[in-house]
């Protein structure tokens, strides 16, 4: 069933989720367990080109409700982390009961909380049990007004549809016929392609953020090793002495970003290591930092800081390069681009950051404790805040 989209249905207990799903999917509905938690049910049917996922009952007292919301969040996070495209949520139907007007605003607050992990997935608010025809329009206005107070809901709530899923018997002679279902199906079809794109963006942002945190810890450990190795009295003219550390750093990052071991990968890693060790860029960076004037720092501290700077800068640049490859913007074969990116990480910006760190090191000796301080300063100086653009 690949190529199917997924609709997540959320709403408090008894709002009419099951009734809605049954009516939308028709009689050939097929329920699937699929290794999901017992709170989450997945339905498929030949009548609509998407799965419908019932996130279950979010009713109960405050604590129970919060636990339910958390369960949904956990469920969606697990899927996002797996990068399991088959389980991505592409459109959300959020069911709000239309019968009790005073509860509408409260249900919109719950909507905000229950959907916040799907940062950009389009939402359709379904006002269930909209039996009173005369109230429908006003209920839509109340929901819209409540959503407009919240930035994400204002952006993501794309349709508000009053629905009567099943005939409602008012008395023995009067009834309210089903309504709103065709509108719901139409709005869902319309939003599905956008929802598929939105999911891609959300998952990328999410997994990149997590990977970046791990990458930074790799860079920090490598930088500390670089500082230790660099704190030797022999003057270094290139960064060849750092080859083992940079190799370990780049390999660890490659594993983290799923860069394989094929020949393209090897060539790519060699390109990075060459820039980081024997390249003209590395040599120029070293001489530039050595030549920084007016700094009262012991030679061994300068060496340590320079060595650490290179490891930190190479690590940071490698992380950014791998991120672009990871999201598919670049390929393993873009070695020229990689070379330029790495070289530029050792140019003007490198010298500015390195100089700043050296300035802070005045009067410091290269003792054991100081090495950790130096490494800390370098990692701080060379890692840009997350969310900052790399171009
Ligand atoms: N006549 C009529 N009854 C409805 C409609 N929607 C919901 N109901 C009734 O409302 C009650 C609750 O509906 P469900 O569909 O079970 O609600 P739910 O959201 O799945 O509830 P939980 O599974 O407990 O979270 C049932 O008695 C339904 O028959 C509707 O459109 N028309
Ligand atoms: Mg139900």
Chart the SSEs and their pairings.
Layout: E1 5-10, H1 17-25, E2 30-32, E3 41-44, E4 50-54, H2 62-82, E5 91-97, H3 104-114, E6 123-128, H4 136-148, H5 151-156, E7 157-162, E8 168-169, E9 175-176, H6 181-230, H7 243-256, H8 263-277, H9 280-290, H10 299-326, H11 335-345, H12 348-360, H13 368-382
Parallel strand pairs: 1-4, 1-5, 5-6, 6-7
Antiparallel strand pairs: 2-3, 3-4, 8-9
Radius of gyration: 28 Å
Q: What's the total helix number?
A: 13
Q: Give the topology string: H per helix, E per strand.
A: EHEEEHEHEHHEEEHHHHHHHH
What percentage of residues falls in helices of 4 or more residues?
55-70%
Ligands, ions, cofactors: guanosine-5'-triphosphate, magnesium ion
Q: What's the count of strands?
A: 9
The residue-averaged pLDDT reads 82
Query: Low-confidence segments, ≥5 residues, pLDDT <50?
Result: 33-38, 385-391
Q: Tell me the fraction of residues in β-strands, as a range.
A: 5-15%
Tell me about this structure.
With 391 residues, the chain is of the alpha/beta class. The chain has two domains: 5-179, P-loop containing nucleotide triphosphate hydrolases (Rossmann fold), CATH 3.40.50; 207-382, no CATH class. Helices cover 55% and strands 10% of the residues. The protein is built from 13 helices and nine strands. It has a seven-stranded mixed sheet with strand order 2-3-4-1-5-6-7, with helices on both faces. Strand 3 and strand 4 (50-54) form a beta hairpin. The longest helix has 50 residues, at 181-230. The model is unreliable at 33-38 and 385-391 (pLDDT under 50).
